[in-house]
Amino acid sequence: HRPGPARPVFHRRHQGRRRFGDAIRQTVLEELNFRNEARNVAMGLAYERPSLGIGIAGQIAGFDAHEDVIISRLAPGARISKGIASAGDAALRAKAMAALLDTWFDEVLFGRGFFHGDLHPGNIYFEATPGSAPGYRLTLIDFGNAGVLSLDERRAFLELILAAQTPNPTR
Do 163 and 49 form a contact (C-beta atoms < 8 A)? Predict the structure, then answer.
C-alpha cells in the first residue's frame, strides 16, 4: 500500500501561530510609526505632574511627525538605572518611581484609561534637582507602545488587582 499525497495539514495546524505572528508584526509596525507615537505623546500629557516631579519628553511644537520621524524634547538626566551614587540617591529614585506608579495607576484606572505600555529603565529618565520640591525630575520617553483601556477593561484590571490581594479570589 502506497501512501497517498500529503494532506495540507500544516496550514490548519499552524493557523493560530500564523495569526499570532501577523498580530505581532502589525503591533510592531504601529509602534514604529511616529505618527502614532505623536498621538500617544499628546495623550501622555496626562502624566505631566510637576508637583510630583513627573514629565514627558514631548514633541516639539511646529514640527509635524511623519511615519518615520518625530522631533521631541531631549529628556533631562539619565536613565533611572544609571549612576546611582549613594543610598540617599537610591531612596530618592525609589520615591520618584512610587510617584510614577501612583500616577500611572491613577490615569489608567480613574482617568481616561491611557497607559504607557513600555515603562522600563531605558524609557524613564531621572535628574536630581536639589533645592526644589520634590528634589527630582522624572521624564518619560518612547510612547510608541501605549493605548487606552475601555471602561470595561479598567474594571477588569481593577478586579484583577483586588483578586491578587484577596485570600480567596473567587468570592
Answer: no
Q: Which of 107, 101, 105 is nearest to 124 (CA)?
A: 101
d(CA 113, CA 107): 6
User: Has this prediction a pTM greater than 0.85?
Assistant: no
Average pLDDT score over residue span 93-98 = 95
Concatenating the DSSP letter of every residue in the chain gives: ----PPP-HHHHHTHHHHHHHHHHHHHHHHHT-HHHHHHHHHHHGGG-BGGGTEEE-PBPTT---BTTB--BPPPSSEETTS---SHHHHHHHHHHHHHHHHHHHIIIIISS-EEES--SGGGEEEEE-TTSSSSEEEEE---SSEEE--HHHHHHHHHHHHHHTSSSTT-
The confidence band for 9, taking pLDDT boundaries of 50, 70 and 90, is very low
pLDDT of residue 170: 65
Please state whether beta strands 136-140 and 54-56 pair in parallel, antiparallel, or not at all (unpaired).
Answer: parallel
